[in-house]
Amino acid sequence: MKVEANKMVAVDYKLTVDGQIADQSQPGQPLEFIFGTGMLLPKFEAAIEGKVAGESVAFTLEPKDGYGELIPDAIVDLPKNIFMVDGKLAEDILFVGSQVPMSDAQGNRMLGIIKEVGEETVKMDFNHPMAGKTLNFEVEVVSVRDVTPEDLQGHCSCGSCGGDHECSEGCCDDHCNCH
What we know:
With 179 residues, this protein is mainly beta. Helix content is 4%, strand content 37%.
């Protein structure tokens, strides 16, 4: 069976960025997703379309085909006092590299990475962590099958968090196929 629209596809993958492994599937826990439904980057799907179980492919995605270019306006200085919890500064999260979930004025959830902690402000980067990066993938198609009703029930199959839970339970990360 070939990788095509509305098939359940399982792949083992390795993502290398700047010469370092940035992400990879774990042995025996391939990434599963329904092909052609927008769960993964379009150019990623295009690279494996038509492949069958056992076939491998290596490809590179430039930033424009991955997570976009860095947006300078997405790096902002925020007042340090917004990190107050119950009248105390949340110092346990205020360090360079810390990823902090936040919401904008419209209630949209986003993840910011702390770039600098100053006396009065905190510099946060709200770009996707892979924005501006060239993504190098090595992918092997593990299986291709028809979608079952269970596949459509919104359970996580990302392999990174142990599997069978509702996505609303919140332990899925960026590459989970249920986002």
